[in-house]
Amino acid sequence: MNISRFPRTPLAHLPTPLEPMTGLSKWLGGPKIYIKRDDCTGLATGGNKTRKLEFLMAHALDRGADTIITQGAVQSNHVRQTVAAAARLNLECTVLLETRVIGASATYNTSGNLLLDGLFGADIRFRDGGTDMDSAMQEVAESVTAAGGTPYVIPGGGSNRVGALGYVECARELTGQISGLGLSFNKIVHATGSAGTQAGLAAGLAAMNSNIDLIGISVSDDEKTQVAKVHALASETARFIGVEHGVLESKIRVNDQYIGDGYGIPTEGMLEAVQNCAQFEGILLDPVYAGKAMAGLIGMIRCGELSTDDTVVFIHTGGAVALFAYDWLFNS
Q: Could you report the per-residue pLDDT of 175-227, keeping only the tens digit for each?
């Protein structure tokens, strides 16, 4: 697998560490858990989107773009990292933020990722929940073009075949680290939402004919919907990098039992996961993605889906800055 032919702009601190979670593993009574620290990618407090942005921003620069346009929820980790990347590359950045979480405290709309978006210089525009965000971004792009600029639209989460290249490369990086440790891992668990992280990993693992079981813990969509979304993007990404045998749909595993009442809405499992990772490992998870993914990992251990014979890699996708927007949960 060689993705060096694709344009790439250095933005991330790589490789990210792969560390044992000894305290958490002991508390749970096994299995062995390691954590892939993609919260340590460096850009704007880090996160998984920085890997994607290395390829997306290079694609934008190749096309002469001067304005980046993207979208996400009010506390979007993707938006925060995109705005920071645009600032580093001296590009304008307009972001559309959709109100998806109703009833949060006042700090939700002033702190965390949103505070940093403003600090990095974003042109921030809010949209009501249920807005067709792709159409809304296209309208902004047309206005940029009409004013003589050159827009580049990045989909929510950076999840297209270009962005997914970041996690094709992560699959290679991770398997190399696993080999270097002389260990045998059989499970990878991570949050899955806009699909690009899981799709890139699935395409990368397929390219290497790896048998590691990849499990996405959904933070928004039901299993059937998420599997279809991930498989479509994984298949497109595999073709893009020249993997002739593609990605089998059976390799796309999604667990939708830890979403709770919806995207960004807290659950008891998430609270437990965030608190215990902080207290047993000194690691901060975010309340929207990694917190729910870790709740899924803990739940799968407790119900026997993951056994003491397994060795699991948990991919920390970052976003702990969003904890400040959910301060009301942790101050009670």
A: 999 999 898 899 999 999 999 999 999 999 999 999 999 999 999 999 999 99
Structure tokens at 121: 């210089």
CB 42 within 8 A of CB 13: yes
Catalytic annotation on 76?
yes
Residue 332 reports pLDDT greater than 70: no
**Best CA proximity match to 31, nearest among 188, 148, 174, 226:** 188
Strands 311-316 and 151-153: unpaired
Burial of 106 (0-12, 13-18, 19+ CB in 10 A): exposed
Q: pTM of the prediction?
A: 0.96
Catalytic residue (one of 25, 76, 159, 210): 76
**Second CATH level (architecture) for the domain 49-158:** 3-Layer(aba) Sandwich (3.40)
Could you name the CATH architecture of 18-47+160-330?
3-Layer(aba) Sandwich (3.40)
